[in-house]
Amino acid sequence: MNGTLLQKFIQSIVDYTGWHIRSLDYKSLSNKILLRIKALKLSSVEQYYGG
Questions:
Q1: Domain count within the chain
Q2: 20 to 30 Å CA-CA from 19: which of 8, 25, 28, 44?
Q3: Mind listing the pLDDT tens digit for each residue in 29-41?
Q4: Distance between CA 11 and CA 42 in Å, rounded?
Q5: Contact 37, 48 (CB under 8 A)
Q6: What's the burial of 33, exposed, middle or buried (CB within 10 Å: 0-12/13-18/19+)?
């Protein structure tokens, strides 16, 4: 996942929940997002982010 898209996910999480994601957790978050995309059988990260 590219850094720009990851930053958009992180900002969405912050905006929605108020939680802040530590930079050392970025890799774990990215992996969880990719697992979610696979579970939903989506073809791209952009498709998941765009809804």
A1: 1
A2: 44
A3: 999 999 999 999 9
A4: 22
A5: yes
A6: middle
